Amino acid sequence: MIRVLGIETSCDETAASVVMLEDAPAGAEILSPRILSPQILSNVILSQVEEHAAFGGVVPEIAARAHVEALDGIIEAALADAGVTLADVDAIAATAGPGLVGGLIVGLMTAKAIASASGKPLIAVNHLEGHALTARLTDGLEFPYLLLLVSGGHTQIVRVAGVGDYRRWATTIDDALGEAFDKVAKMLALPYPGGPNVETAAAKGDPTRFAFPRPMKGSAQPDFSFSGLKTAVRQAATAIAPLSEQDVADICASFQSAVADALADRVARALLRFRTDYPDKAEPALVVAGGVAANRAIRETLERLCAENGFRFVAPPHRLCTDNAAMIAWAGIERLNADMADTDAFDFAPRSRWPLDEVSTPVVGSGRRGAKA
């Protein structure tokens, strides 16, 4: 069996996890990950919501300091919860990017120290690859599949053909969806974190009251755009200020409805393309991952879309949608199994920008630090 300790510190969650992959039964022919048996032995997550709430968003310096203070204890708790010692672990996997560089330094340097002191292999993991491969941990999904990655920093449709084999089919040309949720929450004076609070308010609102635009809907261009929708929300809120509690709920519901419709339109194009590229795929699947994948309205809309198009809909449990270390440990196991792990990554430098698909031409955000998406 393989046991990997995963460490995640890319933003405002300090997390550690031990994931195990058992060997197939003796004599079994390994044709599918379903024959194997992955288990999350522990998954410890410490949120920093309270530290950042007063500022309405994540403060990088505060986040990095909190990681320094908490990480050792979180790792000890993860090992204890898993019922193992460091000697029982086969490798250390840590998020090396993308993310807030201060937090990445804390997690990766801690992983380097543990790996060096214990003589264990070190695997530097792309945080986005963790999200991309989580469905194989939770659902035993086989390659290839389609991934909708929706988080605070990324909104992409990616074809996942294998470990390390990713092609970006669409991305946002402005704001990421999670960023748009957070900005709408700030406009409406909702507390941090914005996404869950917008969803909570939307549950009490009328999604038909405001006719917000559905950005890019019907466009031949495959990408996303949320900046114009965010502007429309601001204009609507300003026009009826001061806002009542019901006004806020109606704006949130209308915004969320517009987002779900826009996503469905963009994803529908990708489903058609996937069918064309893989006509013999018996069970095509759409995976929705990232923090925004926890939004129930978005899940339900995309689940209906998949049912209408003959696709299997896969979304990890909510606790594995947001940042966590189990997905990092699993990505390390996947790379070990594929003989693609740089297990001597002691000279790997944290990367604040690290595209999942490093081949496709960046749409926005390229600079000295590299391409954002």
From TrEMBL:
UniProt keyword Magnesium present: no
Subcellular location: Cytoplasm
List of residues binding substrate: 149-153, 182, 195, 199, 295
Catalytic activity: L-threonylcarbamoyladenylate + adenosine(37) in tRNA = N(6)-L-threonylcarbamoyladenosine(37) in tRNA + AMP + H(+)
The entry's keywords: Acyltransferase, Cytoplasm, Iron, Kinase, Metal-binding, Transferase, tRNA processing
Broad EC category: transferase
Binding residues for Fe cation: 127, 131, 323
Record Pfam families: TsaD (PF00814)
Residue intervals of the Gcp-like domain: 39-330
MF terms in GO: iron ion binding; kinase activity; tRNA N(6)-L-threonylcarbamoyladenine synthase activity
Comment on bound cofactor: Binds 1 Fe(2+) ion per subunit.
Cofactor needs: Fe(2+)
GO biological process, one term: tRNA threonylcarbamoyladenosine modification
This enzyme's EC code(s): 2.3.1.234
KW tRNA processing (keyword) present: yes
Highest taxon listed in the record's lineage: Bacteria
GO cellular component, one term: cytoplasm
InterPro entries attached to this UniProt entry: ATPase_NBD, Gcp-like_dom, KAE1/TsaD, TsaD
Annotated family: Belongs to the KAE1 / TsaD family.
Entry function: Required for the formation of a threonylcarbamoyl group on adenosine at position 37 (t(6)A37) in tRNAs that read codons beginning with adenine. Is involved in the transfer of the threonylcarbamoyl moiety of threonylcarbamoyl-AMP (TC-AMP) to the N6 group of A37, together with TsaE and TsaB. TsaD likely plays a direct catalytic role in this reaction.
Protein name, entry field: tRNA N6-adenosine threonylcarbamoyltransferase
